[in-house]
Amino acid sequence: MSKLVKSLALSAAVFTTGLMVGAAQAGDADAGEKVFKKCKACHAVGDGATNKAGPQLNDVIGRTAGTVDGFKYSKGMIEAGEGGMVWDEATMTAFLIKPKDVVKGTKMAFAGLKKDEDLENVIAYLATFSSSAPADSSQAPAEPAPAQTAEAAATPDAASSSSLRESGIFKLGRVATQDEIAAWDIDVRPDGQGLPEGSGSVADGEVLFADNCAVCHGDFGEGVGRWPVLAGGHDSLKDDRPEKTIGSYWPYLSTVYDYVRRAMPFGNARSMSDDDVYALTAYLLYLNDVVTDEEFVLSKENFLEVRLPNEENFFMDDRSEEPHYASKSEPCMTNCKADEVKITMRARVLDVTPEDGGDDDAGVGAVD
Amino acid sequence: MTETKDKGSPSLSRRSLLKAGLATGGAAVAGVAASGARAEGDPLITEIQDWNRYLGDGVDAAPYGLPSEFEADVVRRNVPWLTADAVSSINFTPLHELDGIITPNGLCFERHHGGVAQIRPQDHRLMINGLVDTPLVFTMEDLKRFPRENHVYFLECAANGGMEWRGSQLNGCQFTHGMVHNVMYTGVKLKTLLEEAGVKTNGKWVMPEGADASAMTRSIPMEKALDDCLVAWKMNGEALRPEQGYPLRLAVPGWEGNMWVKWLRRLEVGDEPWHHREETSKYTDLLANGKARRFTWVMDPKSVITSPSPQMPISHGEGPMVISGLAWSGNGRITRVDVSLDGGRNWKTARLDGPSLSKSLHRFYLDIDWDGSEMLLQSRAMDEHGFYQPTKNELRAARGENSIYHNNGIQTWYVQKNGAVENVEVG
User: What is the ipTM of this complex?
Assistant: First the structure.
């Protein structure tokens, strides 16, 4: 049989199965397939269905809630399953009317189906993919046409996802999938939110640092040329030339992890594994004497135990309380200075202006 | 600081000297030429010029028009010693050559942290995720279907003037004040996009993220995000320039330029700020007592005289002239600019000209009759909330000299008798 013929035959099989199930149950599986378009942005069903923003739905009827392998359920859904909730016509109907009322905290961002016939039909449709569904128990799970499977696995289209949305008035764009969010949402906060699983040692970090970082930051984080100095500078913040390093200035360790993971090494961002970033962060703590044990291993578990010494020395913007802003008095217009004004400093003495033949290395107050 | 002795003739660039009419005696030479012209006639008038006889280029000689070849000096400039590498560096808008309030797109200063990303608009996505009802993904086409707005806003790097904290260092307002530009943006309100995703009640912060190799992130409080932030794809009517974030950037009006994330690909909503690198290690203002301000978002009122200035000396000798400059405030409109010719002893209120728009550059002029004597030029801006620009010494008294960022102190230009201008500080 040619591929095309086979696919047509399968389509016919689905169609037939749908009709049969539809006849056996209150719902019409064929009509349910149309209703399921509202679900397709997040759920796949049929041959080769995998988890998307929502779990795959083969054999969902008769399954204990929250038990599809590899899907990250909400706490609420896992608890519902542990409490004995099994998907059958009754539980599925209640859930699809208003998901958040049935399973508190569910990740399913779907407002719910309003029409009884839609509910019945979509459940009938899902039952055709469930071997344990009563009306369908004697049949092998039916397969939808391969073409449809491919479509469901591809980027969800705006039309089908717009009806899934609780929010918005324009219904433009589409729902982001969990995989897409996971690919981009790698940010880490001081409270540990966003830290991935993993760990890395000072020793491993030292090797990684020498290979990837030392070319700009120096073997000991001392900085090469004008590249940032990463270590040292303790108690220098009140000096004429403060050295603002991770150890002397940065308030939070999470910033190191986040920044290295998103932007380093310079010119080869996102090339480090999560464990590598833990190891480099551990090594930077070691270079800054925040940890002194060469055997130290930094991990998601002990990350929040490490505090940087300068954390307390940051405060919210209060410029408006500075005397020159706070007064808001009318500025002086005449005879504002008692004597003739004298020049106290001239730029050309330093002579660092480009095109003035200025010395390329003479300036102070670099921007980085 | 001590007074420094004048070591003789001012150190000027060749270009500045040419503009100053070769400094000494420039006015006299001009005078001779003028009287000669009366007798025989100016050859530019009495003789037929090539451009008057021969044909010029046809319409398609430059499908995208460029400035005249005689404006080749009007370019962005870099200060090589400022940063480690041009890929993560900054250059400066030639403010001294510009007039009005709009910065031409090709002259807007650049600041990148991982070079200029080149992104096909068809390949660009904007994601909204975090504490929202529905995480969303938009294409550029999607974004252009939302209601659209146009606004003129200045964008100033918080480090503009950062090299001058310890005293006058760079000769030219391009270098002392050129990390600012002002263009009209077209885009959709950030509020509209956030509402489309539905911000949860505990969503208090928004984190924009760039798609470039630095994946720039900043934390923006929700109040600002819902107020006037714009997700923009046009500047001055045409697509954003690649170096300004093509195809999409965030505008955070009145707030420091680093927050205007370019190549904007993601907006995350959270309940706490992220304290990422650019709001901890950088863009925090270290004070003399060793403590540091954070979240210093607003750009305070500021002004500078753009002409005359070190790169734009007086070339015409005494007589009528225009003192021209720019003023801006992240708080709103500029209501007044005062100009001093004597280093801040006496002030005259300048004339604001052109549109007065909130969080936009304002153009001011003071028309004077120069008597040819030395001047110490200063300008002082005041905004609609009554905040006015402090002196550099007032700022130093409050903050010390290690703040790097937010130096909006009053600038002094020393105009010499020959018309040359120098960046100085006064007592």
Answer: 0.89
